[in-house]
Design goal:
This protein has 472 residues and is an alpha+beta fold. The chain has eleven helices and 19 strands. It binds iron/sulfur cluster.
């Protein structure tokens, strides 16, 4: 099927990573603001099957080891191909590109990040035409309702600009469609296991009010995909009985998660980052991270390049969040889920969000309650926990009331835990130095009956005060 492709193509290469020192070229990625991939449904007579076009430089003319802008436009047609399918067909770009030996594709939509390895380049993978041919073959063989596929790669920065703006409008229109619907209005949710090649125990549960973590698949997209291929990676989940309305726990979701995660995940809370949170693969658009010092959540998006208010960058926290695990307080999210009324609803919603990048705050302005909006800090207001505490206090953020409520509770019962389980440490790795060795606990979860915090003072004196830390 791939005789003309100079490298191997197959499932075995999914999940391969191409490190910076091994890459011939990078396409898109975090250093470039405008990049995209999009699928559009067209009338059959407007496109030609098998045409692959490159607008701008091809691989040999790209600067070695540096990022080049990229737009991927896939136009499809077919008698049974509906515009509803655009989102799910688009998500297959990620899957199919990752079948190609030495070609790494990360993320989706406006966040794409691709690397080609030097090894595969030397083997002859030296044109985007090869990539287009693989995509064309797989689209036609795996999704037979698609009768025509035309693919355009845009690498000229000037040509990308208008197409990027158009793509952003299309994503927004798709996302807006599901906003009128609530989870109570439907009996069926959808699951997606497309990312199990990277995180074998991860399954996304896609509901009208909990958009997929990658931000690429809505409830409508899930319905369309499950309709054309019920045994495919996107499937229907009968909601079942509601066990907990506030947290968003359903018997049907629990059963499906158990089955699809091979018994690793038995319960899922759709609207909470604690207890049994929705798992995260690695494709999430952003992370909601718990900040124990203020008992609130920070939000960081993939595109944010600086360290956040807790001193950690997105990439560091992504390690603690990803992998298909249920990690208390590190929660993969999409922008569209942040527009939902059920966003972290069980944890307090936006009344619990204390920090996010300014760009994200601006983007979500109409979805954040007006009374909380000014009290959420950004990198322009706070770059440390100390700054953050001051900002929250000055702006009378709702979490400040939780501090006083908690202090009162601590005074009456020092052994009582907080309202929500929390982590003692918010860092991903915890180093311990002992007897000449450095031991690093990666993604450790530590529980303790009691934690005593004492300032270290000279002359062997310890602080006189101790306080029970929050019990996880
Ligand atoms: S993040 Fe979720 S919805 Fe998106 S492709 Fe992966 S499993 Fe599917």
């Amino acid at each position: 099927m791939f005789e003309s492709i100079p490298v191997e193509v197959g499932l075995v290469h999914e999940g391969e990573r191409v490190r910076k020192q091994d890459m011939q070229v990078e396409l898109g990625g975090p250093s470039l603001p405008e990049k995209f991939e999009i699928v559009r449904v067209r009338p059959g007579d407007e496109i030609t099957d098998g045409v692959i076009e490159i607008i701008g430089p091809d691989i040999p003319d790209m600067p070695e080891g540096k990022a080049t802008p990229l737009g991927i436009l896939v136009e499809i047609a077919g008698e049974k191909v509906e515009p509803d399918l655009e989102g799910v067909v688009e998500r297959r770009i990620h899957e199919y590109c990752n079948y190609i030996e030495g070609f790494m594709h990360l993320n989706q939509r406006y966040d794409i990040w691709i690397r080609l390895s030097k090894k595969s380049y030397k083997k002859g993978l030296n044109s985007l035409t090869h990539i287009g041919k693989v995509m064309h073959t797989l689209f036609k063989s795996e999704l037979p309702i698609i009768e025509k596929v035309q693919i355009t790669f845009i690498t000229d920065p000037l040509e990308i600009k208008p197409l990027y703006a158009e793509a952003m409008k299309t994503y927004e229109a798709r996302d807006a469609r599901a906003r009128g619907l609530s989870d109570d209005d439907v009996d069926t949710f959808y699951g997606c296991a497309l990312c199990q090649s990277f995180a074998p125990t991860h399954v996304c549960v896609i509901t009208p009010q909990r958009y997929a973590n990658c931000g690429a698949i809505s409830w409508f997209d899930g319905r369309a995909a499950a309709g054309i291929d019920p045994k495919g990676p996107i499937y229907a989940i009968a909601k079942g009985e509601c066990v907990d309305k506030e947290k968003g726990e359903y018997t049907g979701v629990n059963e499906s998660a158990k089955q699809r995660s091979m018994g690793e995940v038995n319960r899922v809370y759709l609207y909470s980052a604690f207890g049994y949170p929705h798992t995260s693969c690695g494709c999430f658009e952003g992370i909601a991270f718990y900040i124990p010092e203020v008992d609130g959540f920070g939000i960081v998006m993939r595109s944010f390049r600086d360290v956040t208010v807790n001193g950690l960058a997105f990439s560091t926290m992504a390690d603690s969040t990803a992998g298909g695990r249920q990690v208390d307080g590190f929660h993969g999210i999409s922008i569209e889920y942040m527009r939902s009324k059920r966003f972290l609803d069980a944890d307090g919603g936006y009344c619990r969000v204390v920090w996010m990048p300014q760009e994200t705050k601006d983007r979500l302005k109409e979805f954040i309650p007006a009374d909380v909006f000014p009290a959420i800090a950004t990198e322009l207001d706070a770059t440390s926990i100390t700054d953050l505490k001051t900002f929250l206090t000055e702006h009378n953020h709702p979490v400040v009331n939780r501090w006083s409520a908690q202090e009162n509770a601590d005074e009456t019962d020092l052994s009582a835990g907080p309202a929500s389980p929390v982590q003692v440490f918010s860092g991903g790795d915890i180093p311990i130095t002992t007897a000449g060795f450095r031991i690093i606990l990666k993604n450790a979860k530590i529980t303790a009956d009691k934690v005593i915090i004492q300032p270290i003072r000279p002359h062997g004196k310890t602080g006189g005060e101790s306080r029970d830390a929050k019990k996880p």
